Amino acid sequence: MAVRISDEILHSVEKPSRYTGNEWNSVHKDPKYVKIRFAFCFPDVYEIGMSHLGMRILYHLLNERQDTYCERVFAPWVDMEEKMRENNIPLFALESRDPIRDFDFIGFTLQYEMSYTNIVNMLDLAGVPIRTSERKAGDPFVCAGGPCAYNPEPLADIVDFFMLGEGEEIINEVMDVYAAWKAEGVSREEFLNRIVNIEGVYVPAFYSVEYNPDGTIKRVAPKKDGYPQRIRKRIIKDLDKAYFPEKVVVPFTDIVHDRIMLELFRGCIRGCRFCQAGYIYRPVRERTPERLLELAKKLEESSGYEEISLTSLSTSDYTGLAYLTEELIKEMEKKKVNLSLPSLRIDSFSLDLMEKAQKVRKSGLTFAPEAGTQRLRNVINKGVTEEDLIKSVTIAFSGGWSNVKLYFMLGLPTETYEDIAGIAELGNKVVGAYMGVPKEKRGKGLNVTISTSSFVPKPFTPFQWEGQDTIEVLKEKQQFLLSRIRSKYIRYNWHQSELSLLEAVFARGDRRTGEVLIKAWQKGCKFDSWGEHFKFDKWLEAFEECGLDPYFYANRKRDYSEVFPWDHIDIGVSKKYLLRENEKAYREETTSNCRVECSGCGAAAFGGGICVE
Amino acid sequence: MLNSIRVKFIRGEEVKFISHLDLMKAFERALRRSGIPVAYSQGFNPHPVMVFGLPLSVGVTSEAEYADFDLAEAVEPDEFVERLNAQLPPGLKIVDARKRQRKENIMASVVMASYDVLVSVDGKWGIDEMAASIEQLMQKPVIMAKKETKSGVKDVDIKPMIRRLEVKAAEELADEHCGCQRLYHLFMLLSAGSKSNLKPELLLGALNDLTGLGLKIRKVHRTGLFVGKEEKVVDPLDACS
Question: Is A89's pLDDT higher than 90?
Answer without folding.
Answer: yes
